[in-house]
Structures are given as C-alpha cells and as structure tokens.
Amino acid sequence: MVRDEDLTNAEMSGRPNAPEVEVTRQMASLAGKIADLGHILNAQLRLRGRVRTPLTVRLRGRIHLSGCGEVVLGEGVSFNGTVVPVELVTYESGRIEIGDHTFINYGSSIAARASVKIGAHCLLGHYTFVMDNDQHDIIKHMELPQSGPVVIEDHVWIGSKTVILAGVRIGSRAVIGAGSVVTRDVPARCVAAGNPARVLRRLTELDESD
C-alpha cells in the first residue's frame, strides 16, 4: 500500500526546487549580459575611427562602411549583420543619420549622396534598401540625377526587402509591407504596400490610444 506522503515525495522529486530555478535564472541573465557586452564591443571595434559610436550601439555580426561622407548614430542603435553584413554608403557630402533605438536587420543597404535620415525606434527588416539618388538619369544614362533626401520619421516599421527611393518621406508610425517599392511619400500612421507602394489603410487604433 502506497502512503500519501510517499506520493507527495515522488511528485516533488521530479520538480526543480526554488534555489535551482533561481540559479538557472541568474546564469541565463549573466549569459545574456555577456552576449550583450560582446555586441557593444563589436560595434566599437568595427566602427572605431569611422563613426562616432555611442557606447549603447550594438552590432551582431558585420557591418560594411564605404565612402567619405558622414554617419551619425543615436543611442541604442542596433545592427544585425549576422547572415549578410549591413551596408552604409556615404558619398562625398552625403550624410546618414540613424535615430535612437532603431534596429536594422541583416542585408540592409543605405546609401546617401545628400541625406538619408531615419528616426528613432524604427525597425528595418532584412534586405531593406534605402537610397537618395537613382544613380542614372533615365534619358542620359551616363549622367547623375539630382539627389532627393529621404526622411523616415519615428516609430516606422519597414518590412523585409522593401526599396525606398529618392525624395521619399515616410510619416511617423507608418508600416510598409514586405517587398514594397516606395516611390512617393507615405502619410503618418498608415499601412502602405505594393509596387509602387500605395496606402492601404489608416491605423485609426493609434489615434484612439493617444
């Protein structure tokens, strides 16, 4: 005959006790902090001498910088260059500005002959392509057309493999669907998608939350 206390002991023996759970949690937390420190050091090493890099910038993997223009990074900017490096290209007099706590995923390429400004708390999906110049005139193929500054305001989400072309302004809290080609301005708090991208709906839920 099995006693009740034996059943209780048997059940408890299969469960981790509180001290073990706490130790595991602390170890996981420590491992996360060590990995995070590694990403901070990676950013400092790879960007040192090329970009003024705040100590809160994080880089997983690789980033490729080219050109002689200016790159400005805000606090908490995060790059993921694990699968394919992130690419930042600034031609002479070009400037790329990335706001606080913006995340840019692998394979993304940003090129500025004049200005590309990305706001704070933005999310750019992998293989996003942003450029402020079409590189070739559609009639005179060997001539460089005029640049059109690109502005992406705060809290914008951009889906994977999106192309953002010269002269475009994307309003705050807009969402751009994956694979879109953005050729004209997108209003704030709207969802846009397609080739060329067009507004599909307004995010009225954001108005109610204000």
Features:
alpha/beta, twelve-stranded mixed beta sheet, 3 helices
Task: Please give a structural write-up.
The chain has 210 residues and is an alpha/beta fold. It has a single domain, classed as Hexapeptide repeat proteins (UDP N-Acetylglucosamine Acyltransferase, domain 1). Helices cover 22% and strands 33% of the residues. It is built from three helices and 17 strands. It has helices at 4-13, 18-47, 204-209; strands at 58-67, 70-73, 78-90, 95-98, 103-104, 109-112, 115-118, 123-124, 129-131, 150-152, 157-158, 163-164, 169-170, 175-176, 181-182, 190-194, 197-202. Strands 1, 3, 5, 6, 8, 9, 11, 12, 14, 15, 16 and 17 form a twelve-stranded mixed sheet that branches. A five-stranded parallel sheet has the order 2-4-7-10-13, with no helix packed on it. The longest helix is centred in the first third of the chain and has 30 residues, at 18-47.
- Terminal residue distance: 65 Å
| Poorly predicted tracts of residues | none
Radius of gyration: 23 Å
Order of helices and strands: HHEEEEEEEEEEEEEEEEEH
Strand composition percent: 25-35%
Count of individual domains: 1
The averaged pLDDT comes out at 88
State the CATH architecture. Answer: 3 Solenoid
Structural class: alpha/beta
Largest sheet: 12 strands, mixed
Short description:
With 210 residues, this protein is of the alpha/beta class. 22% of the residues lie in helices and 33% in strands. Strand 16 and strand 17 (197-202) form a beta hairpin.
List the topology elements:
Blueprint: H1 4-13, H2 18-47, E1 58-67, E2 70-73, E3 78-90, E4 95-98, E5 103-104, E6 109-112, E7 115-118, E8 123-124, E9 129-131, E10 150-152, E11 157-158, E12 163-164, E13 169-170, E14 175-176, E15 181-182, E16 190-194, E17 197-202, H3 204-209
Parallel strand pairs: 1-3, 2-4, 3-5, 3-6, 4-7, 5-8, 6-9, 7-10, 8-11, 9-12, 10-13, 11-14, 12-15, 14-16
Antiparallel strand pairs: 16-17
